[in-house]
């Protein structure tokens, strides 16, 4: 039986690792990418009888690779073809983050956006119309605050529903 692979991709410091830690709840494995010194984080996600492997990819600003981290992220997505890409996007720096989002959308692979740091965006006076942005990008957007596990309920529900559809 195939265990779905879900990758977390996004710019550096957007909350990928915090989201990864919240989703895997300590079921993590650390290793090295073959031939690289960059750490690989993988973990198990269990949701109401459904399971998946979560991979926390190194942060990158684009799929045009200039550093080992960017090469790892690009190559993993393109060659491994994960079942789902979670594009972790920082709500406080939307313009910079959406450059990678557009590149990921062009791959025409299953994609969902986890919009992080929404609490900080609100404190900065930023208002993001997630419904309109989701419609424009033609992909689901789920707001999260990885530091608050209760804010991940909608995201976990989305992942559960996605995994149910994969079986």
Topology:
Layout: E1 5-10, H1 16-24, E2 28-32, E3 39-47, E4 50-56, H2 68-80, E5 84-90, H3 94-106, E6 111-116, H4 118-123, H5 130-137, E7 141-143, H6 153-166
Parallel strand pairs: 1-4, 1-5, 5-6, 6-7
Antiparallel strand pairs: 2-3, 3-4
Structure report:
With 167 residues, this protein is an alpha/beta fold. The protein has a single domain (5-166), classed as 3-Layer(aba) Sandwich (Rossmann fold). The chain has helices at residues 16-24, 68-80, 94-106, 118-123, 130-137, 153-166; strands at residues 5-10, 28-32, 39-47, 50-56, 84-90, 111-116, 141-143. A 7-stranded mixed β-sheet has the order 2-3-4-1-5-6-7, sandwiched between helices. The radius of gyration is 15 Å and the shape is globular. The model has no long low-confidence stretch (mean pLDDT 88).
Report the β-strand fraction as a percent range. Answer: 25-35%
Distance between the termini: 9 Å
Question: How many strands, which pairing sense, and closed or not: the largest β-sheet?
Answer: 7 strands, mixed
* Unreliable segments of 5+ consecutive residues: none
CATH homologous superfamily - what is it?
Answer: P-loop containing nucleotide triphosphate hydrolases
Structural class: alpha/beta
Residue share in helix: 25-40%
What is the 3D shape?
globular
Classify the oligomer: single chain
Level-2 CATH architecture: 3-Layer(aba) Sandwich
Count the domains: 1
Task: Give the beta-strand count.
Answer: 7
Give, in spatial order, the strands making up the sheet with the most strands: 2-3-4-1-5-6-7
Number of helices: 6
- Output the CATH class name: Alpha Beta
Radius of gyration: 15 Å
Q: How do the helices and strands follow one another from N- to C-terminus? A: EHEEEHEHEHHEH
Q: Output mean pLDDT.
A: 88
